[in-house]
Please model this.
Amino acid sequence: MNAAEILKTYFGYDSFRNGQEEIVRAILAGEDALAIMPTGAGKSICYQVPALLLPGITIVVSPLISLMQDQVKALNEAGIHAAFINSSLTETQIAKAMRFAAEGRYKIIYVAPERLESAVFMQFAQNGKISMVTVDEAHCISQWGQDFRPSYLKIVSFIDSLADRPVVSAFTATATREVRTDIECTLKLHNPRVVVTGFDRENLYYSVEHITGKHKDAFILDYIQKHADESGIIYCATRKNVDNLYEKLSRSGISTARYHAGLDNDTRKKNQDDFIYDRVQIVIATNAFGMGIDKSNVRFVIHYNMPQSMENYYQEAGRAGRDGESAQCILLFSVQDVMIDKFLLEKKEFERMNAEDIELVRQRDARRLQVMEGYCKTTLCLRNYILEYFGERASAPCDNCGNCHQEYYEQDMTSDAKWVVNCIAEMRGRYGLNIVLGTLLGANRARLKEIGASAYKSYGILKQRSETDLRLLVDQMLAEGYIVQTGEYSVLQMGDISRLKEESTRVIVRKAQEREDAADKTKTENKKKKTDSLTSAGYDLFDRLRQLRLVIAKEAAMPPYIIFSDKTLIDMCAKAPGNQAEMLAVSGVGENKYQKYGERFIQEIAAFLDENPNAVVSTQIDEEPAPAAKKGRKGAFYLNQEDAERFQYAEYCYISDIKERMNQVCTAVNVKKATISVIWEYLVSAGLVAEEQGQEGCRKVQTEQGLNLGIKTIDKISQGGYAYQLLMYPETVQRMIVEYFVGAR
Model:
């Protein structure tokens, strides 16, 4: 068989995904390979397929026992003989596994890096034919990676000890350019084929919710109740948070398990298995619940606290939607999270590192924490923020994240910014953010009186502002370098304020509009899921097949997703196979799985169709159906004639200004607020504006008709230094918009 035939026969896929075939061909050609592929992109296929075609044994170095076990179970289910060797086995079992491998029964053996130092294993490897050594989670070999493990350094000496150097392949989902270089050098890869498929997980919807600690529990409870049939992970920064949230959810009747290092091994193993085997819906965990989690049908990952780095967040959030179906990644952020992370980093232990390297790592950790805080506070596209961190230049906003679905308006806070500078100057750069804000707001605190802040000119000067507004302003000023945050206590000090002295300089802060339905902010409104093609009958069939899968999983003592993924079951519903050929055409059904389970699923589908002879289980979706009206739901925005007469026209203004002014004058009862998107849709329908796709991505432009009516383009610079353009609308167009919404009643 060739690579494509193995892919279809054993794994049930008709074609390789992006990047997979290139890696497979390189390995089969005897080249070393380094692949950086996002979680869920099919990294395992890249080494498992060539392992079956290479003449000898492939050794896969994996960091976690649970990860090895899941991989071997999945391979055995696909009809591929594989084994793992780790501390969970007896010496007799280990000897048997190595004997079978030497006899050619096992083509793939998973081992922990510590095993490579074993004299017995070394003897086995040196006497056998090792065709490839694969390093999974390769970022663990770099001390600049987020999961550095000194044991990974043993891999190099093991490879060097072999009589014939095998092909070396390395795989990771989280590697910056710095880490990639470190992997290549440390593993001594020979002119490797490097494939970077990109870090974008299009099926994941990212959002950040700014919620204080006491409201996080309520948010999570509400979310889980609205997603009662979905599997999810909730990450917390501390064991205490895990335990407290576990108790609250359990008392609310939610099927929940917990996982952290404070629990004994047996409890952790049981709780993990309960989650993997779908015996519980939710697991609440610290980051100890790590790389070994390969459950494909996780529909949401919620971070109760901000992670310490973007690498950690990307990997943890990436445990959602591994089957390719839509999933939610929600980060609940409060300012206290930053302090928690700083405390945890201070307590971080270092293994086998000298003082100089420890200091460098601490500096790196501080930078990563700043990046993560920036992610939580940015008003720009969240997906692009992630991609740019990993070295991908994104062009246009994704329109599939919380920030892209949030509406913002710009506010000139230049004069406020000068008072912030004045306050810091009066304090001589000795105090942190809370003291500065308290002073500007005129807070009645003993500490402020103690340091004499109540006598400052800046004391209470911005009391008309909210604390939230001033925090946004300070974030903006930090980003633009007017002020800096230094030292252990995050003291605010003067930065480069020369530009602030120029008359033309403006400090613009982007502020979020309040959304009407805060509880439903995280919906992926524009992202179709595979299940969108299923009718109500299709959903009934899908549920039947899931129940059958659960029965089979219990019989086989196997995680349900290893039998068939949700994605495969959905395809089954859509195709409704009635024989072997039709079942083998379902994505993810290989010959071995068909032989084991195929007929039972065919029978279940046939029984369902017999019971529902007129059922249509799947249909092609061409357009979104209009939602049914609900009692009490607000109607579409419109203006009364009296409202229109009060509208304040300007010579030119932005679309956000038009929206604000219409909302200010609107007196209509029980209607939604005007939004930028609604106004934009009208302008498009009127032929005045359009979206234009260019090399730099999608941008909004005026048409020839719009240009004739006076719509003009203004050049702007973002806080990140990127140039962009905004449209400004003359009074004539403003009147057209207002008249349209008067007629929309």
About this structure: The radius of gyration is 29 Å.
